[in-house]
Design a protein that fits this description.
Blueprint (H helix, E strand, L loop, with lengths): L1 E5 L13 E4 H4 L4 H11 L8 E6 L5 H15 L3 E9 L2 H10 L4 E5 L11 E7 L8 H11 L4 E5 L11 E4 L2 E6 L3 H10 L2 H9 L4 E4 L5 H12 L7 E2 L20 H8 L6 E4 L8 E4 L2 E3 L1 H11 L12 E5 L5 H9 L2 E5 L7 H5 L5 E4 L3 E4 L7 H15 L3 H12 L1 E12 L1 H18 L3 E2 L2 E8 L2 E2 L6 E2 L4 E5 L4 E6 L7 E11 L9 H4 L1 H11 L1 H5 L6 E2 L1
Parallel strand pairs: 3-4, 3-5, 4-9, 10-11, 10-12, 15-16, 15-17
Antiparallel strand pairs: 1-7, 2-6, 5-6, 8-9, 12-13, 13-14, 17-18, 19-26, 19-27, 20-21, 21-24, 22-23, 24-25, 25-26
Helix pairs in contact: 2-3, 2-5, 7-13, 10-11
The structure holds alpha-D-glucose-1-phosphate-6-vanadate and cobalt (II) ion.
Alpha-D-glucose-1-phosphate-6-vanadate binds next to loops.
Length: 542
């Protein structure tokens, strides 16, 4: 029986870059999940009798949250819920499922690359009918609702068994527990030449894919080892654990250093790859060659036509503003448009829906295409595999050839994690106020060509998003970008993005931090990082 229960609002339920993310104990507060989920439904219209997809990355509190969501969805009038078995669905798999079964929307439970466990992070994100994260106007409506919510509706019923594939009834709502991998794997098979990749593995091509004890394990086991015949043992840490084995499921050079070390060793496989907590990010390291996510986007865009799913070429490319300009050069050469959006996948949805772009990417290890409306970690690995199998060259050779053709964008991101929020806000405010005076100013041999606060005008729905990052631009595409993270759950994280373009092939093999050393020094000076954060050096360099 459905019941209406009185509640009082929490005032901190504003979704960030990618949904609402907080520490687990915050979510465990009385009615915290219920309030947020009811606020989502209160902000939507027309879902009566419709389908909701529900799944998460298996982290601590996934199961508890799913039971609450199902009961609230049933009481609010959804007709059907489709749930991944064991509550497991990667973020791109949720997106794919929403699209293929024409669901009304979906709820993704994840805090992505942030650590899990009882003291770790948890998150709830709502995705709309195109499979993508709700746009800003929806997330703002949800937030507004959370501040005045007075009651929620919930079905009073025993917990649903989510571990066996079957159909059950929860009040008036039908609940279908489905295989977590099947639908997604079929989509991948439709995009890539699985025979060609299988042949490559048969001829001795080797891969190590680290699922980081997070959600991609079952997908990688089924697709890489199962369907494509990669050697057993190719998938590392392939079982999703509620605390990710105590690790930080962030596939970067710091948290996946063991993979980097393997790739640089004499035991290196042809390809090392990894994905994050919820399966939407990717790390690509060839034997002896790390590929920055920005370069990976550019290289995949330049080679996508080799995969069957993109054989007719790409309509355009979109990248988040802090992502390097490497893909811009590919777009120019292909004669397609390049769109520069604020950070966060939700800004790509409209461009993809309007068929203005085919491939999208972010410097934070996110790449994806029009096949879903999320970034997709395994998709990127499979596209790399298909390109490698088609070109029959190493990752290193492909990267070098790419730089020789387009030039190299040296690129690095410096994160100052968990700094004091007031200090971080003051840094941004002070720099924002100083931007006009920076223009024309010289730093060493470099002169500031322009400085602004990035704003985006969505060409499809006409909406405007302001204050999306401070840009200090020098000649020839060199730049420093500053913004505050919208996914952290403790204090503030300052992200500083540093980039320099090098056209001369003879100068394309300098170590990255070295190649950027002057800009790195200016990044401290321009924003007075130490004065505002009390940090001399970043906590994470990627
Ligand atoms: C970070 C990344 C951003 C990404 C977002 C979600 O956001 O910078 O590019 O879209 O995480 O990724 P922020 O606001 O902390 O910089 V995930 O893999 O957490 O869904
Ligand atoms: Co993620």
């Amino acid at each position: 029986m459905a019941k209406e229960i009185a509640t009082t609002p929490y005032l901190d339920q504003r979704p960030g870059t990618s949904g609402l993310r907080k520490k687990v104990p915050v979510f465990q507060q009385r009615h915290y999940v219920e309030n947020f989920v009811q606020s989502i439904f209160d902000s939507l219209e027309g879902f009566e009798g419709q389908t909701l997809v529900v799944g998460g990355d298996g982290r601590y509190y996934n199961r508890e949250a799913i039971q609450k969501i199902l009961k609230i969805a049933a009481a609010n009038g959804f007709g059907r819920a489709v749930v991944g078995r064991g509550g497991i669905l990667s973020t791109p798999a949720v997106s794919a499922l929403i699209r293929s079964i024409k669901a009304f929307g979906g709820i993704v439970l994840s805090a992505s690359h942030n650590p899990g466990g009882p003291e770790g992070d948890f998150g709830i994100k709502y995705n709309v009918a195109n499979g993508g994260p709700a746009p800003e106007k929806v997330t703002e409506a949800i937030y507004a609702r959370t501040k005045e919510i007075a009651s929620f509706k919930i079905e009073e019923a025993p917990d649903v068994d989510i571990d066996s594939i079957r159909v059950t009834q929860l009040g008036a709502m039908r609940v279908e527990i489905v295989d977590s991998v099947e639908n997604y794997a079929a989509l991948m098979q439709a995009l890539f030449d699985f025979d060609r990749i299988r042949d490559a593995f048969r001829s001795g091509f080797t891969i190590k894919f680290d699922a980081m004890s997070a959600v991609t394990g079952p997908y990688a086991h089924a697709i890489l080892e199962g369907m494509l015949g990669a050697a057993p043992g190719s998938v590392l840490n392939g079982e999703p654990l509620p605390d990710f084995g105590g690790h930080h499921p962030d596939p970067n050079l710091v948290y996946a250093k063991h993979l980097y070390d393997l790739a640089m060793s004499n035991k290196a496989p042809d390809l090392c790859a990894a994905s994050d907590g919820d399966g939407d990010r990717n790390l690509i390291i060839g034997r002896g060659r790390f590929v920055t996510p920005s370069d990976s986007l550019a290289i995949l865009a330049a080679n996508a036509h080799l995969a069957p799913g993109y054989k007719n070429g790409i309509a355009g490319i979109a990248r988040s503003m802090p992502t390097s300009g490497a893909a811009d050069r590919v777009a120019a050469k292909l004669g397609v448009h390049m769109y520069e959006t604020p950070t966060g996948w939700k800004f790509f949805g409209n461009l993809l829906d309007a068929s203005l772009v085919t491939i999208c990417g972010e410097e934070s290890a996110g790449t994806g295409s029009n096949h879903v409306r999320e970034k997709d970690g395994l998709w990127a690995v499979l596209l790399w595999l298909d390109v490698l199998a088609a070109r029959k060259q190493s990752v290193d050779t492909i990267v070098r050839e790419h730089w020789a053709t387009y030039g190299r964008n040296y690129y690095s991101r410096h994160d100052y994690e968990e700094v004091d929020s007031d200090g971080a806000n003051a840094l941004i405010k002070t720099l924002r106020d100083r931007l006009p005076s920076l223009k024309g100013k010289a730093f060493g041999a470099l002169e500031v060509k322009d400085a602004d606060d990035f704003a985006y005008h969505d060409p499809v729905d006409g909406s405007d998003s302001k204050n999306q990052g401070l840009r200090v631009m020098f000649a020839h595409g060199s730049r420093i970008v500053y913004r505050l993270s919208g996914t952290g759950t403790a204090g503030a994280t300052l992200r500083v993005y540093i980039e320099r373009y090098e056209a001369d092939p003879a100068k394309q093999f300098v170590e990255t931090q070295q190649a950027l050393s002057d800009l790195i020094a200016f990044s401290h000076e321009i924003a007075e990082i130490e004065r505002f954060t009390q940090r001399k050096t970043p906590s994470v360099i990627t």
